[in-house]
Amino acid sequence: MTERDNSAWSPSSREIERQGSRRAINRKQILIAAVSSFLVLGTLAVVLVTSPGWQTVKTTFFDIEYGTEVFPTVIKGLWINLQLTFMGGAAIGVIALGLALMRTTKSPALTPFRFLATAYVDIFRGAPLILIILLVGFGVPALGLKGISSNVIFLGTVAVVLTYSAYVAEVIRSGILSIHPSQRAAARSLGLTSGQTMRFVVLPQAIRRVVPPLLNDFVSLLKDTGLVSILGVTDAVRAAQINASRTFNYTPYVVAAVLFLLITIPMTRYTDRAIRQRTNAQSSEGAI
Amino acid sequence: MSNVLELKDVRKSFGDEVVLNHLSLVVPEHTATVLIGASGSGKSTLLRCINLLETIDDGQIFLDGKEITDPLINVDEVRRKLGMVFQSFNLFPHKTVLENITLAPMKVQGKTQEEARVAAKALLSRFDLADKADQYPDRLSGGQQQRVAIIRSLAVNPRLLLLDEITSALDPVLVNEVLSIVRDLKSDGMTMVLATHEMGFATQVADEVCFLESGNILERGSATAVLQNPKNPKTQEFLKRVHQAGRL
Fold this sequence. Notes:
The complex is a heterodimer of chains A (288) and B (248).
Chain A: H1 13-50, H2 54-61, H3 64-104, H4 111-126, H5 129-143, H6 152-178, H7 181-189, H8 194-224, H9 236-247, H10 251-285
Chain B: E1 3-14, E2 17-28, E3 32-36, H1 43-50, E4 58-63, E5 66-67, H2 75-80, E6 82-85, H3 97-107, H4 113-126, H5 142-154, E7 160-164, H6 172-187, E8 192-195, H7 199-205, E9 208-213, E10 216-221, H8 223-228, H9 233-247
Parallel strand pairs in B: 3-8, 3-9, 6-7, 7-8
Antiparallel strand pairs in B: 1-2, 1-4, 4-5, 9-10
Helix pairs in contact in B: 3-4, 3-5, 5-6
């Protein structure tokens, strides 16, 4: 038997026919999608614009001139949200990793830490973030402790870090638990200690596996930094609020919302892509 | 010739199920002991108990005359003397072939990266895998992965090698490339205990064959005695079934 030369392949007439049919099916589907989108979105737009209050809504929420005027103060506030996200994010990463390791340890010496870490995660994962922000923001200064800043930005960040560390710790822990016990058996049978096994074998695989959910939490973190505005931090939400209450025009809120979306939507898209790549990579990993 | 491994009256159960029923076994230096028996007969559990991956209920296990089933013993130190290869390879997917092999020599034996790499590359060339050093395990065939797993366990110079059905997850064509490594190691004088379903291979390497059923060693002796002229009816029955499966 001789092998056929691959480079000399040209599609058979049947294949050309099939490609033609596929293109026709495709064209039809695109047409259906376009008509359906036009009908649904068009109806929504018509309902909105013809509603009795549309004129008032337009001037109080979508006043372009006023929006441009408040834009600099809102974006200055957004810079605070971004700073809070990145600094808080770094602290959250470190604390969450510590909590996850404490919760998964079997070492008897660390039993009290395992217990404390579990209690910590239960409390901060179960309580609404806004309550934690209020408790930390107003409670800690009331203690009158020396050496602890009563700066609202600092206290707001602490509250967000406390809560998010609990969320992220659970994500990392789920990653650690998802690594098959055979990996641990292989490492231990080579003579690695349980600490070395965690550090060199389990954790690197676990973190890779939980990158997509961690990115999700990062997007949520950015949004939730808006909650520190209740302490009086002039972030984007607070800046919008100040402007809105001055003029009774709500356009600043819309400006703030759009600015958040401009950051979160690309991040979410990126996360979705990371999840897809992760899924593809895993399927090629086979039994491991 | 000294005894590398000795099991005295070892018992292990999972709940109500007795998996190892007061087993005794002696493995002299430079010999290969082959465990045969149906799935669930206790072969893997026996190997896992020797490697202290499972805690036994009763009895004693000695490595070079020292009891390793003493709760006060340093488990990591014992495991350093034992190499274990698994049915499912268990290579570390996030590390290259070379990193898989050098991890234990560097972290456990304290070798420098350079020393570990040189030694690992020598082993890889010996078993025709030098060109795979920088690849990740998922780019390798099953046979290549299992050969890397064997090399990984050899890299720490184990006193005893435990091989747990290392060809059961492989395509028949790939089985031989893995078994030939084990034959090489046997002729180098490596002491080993292995569980296998490959009877032809067992005949070639075994100094002693043990037939396990429900946690008991029902028959033991040389490969010819157990595999060619089994005395116990259950051994005869088992070998007949293996033979028939082979003909399919």
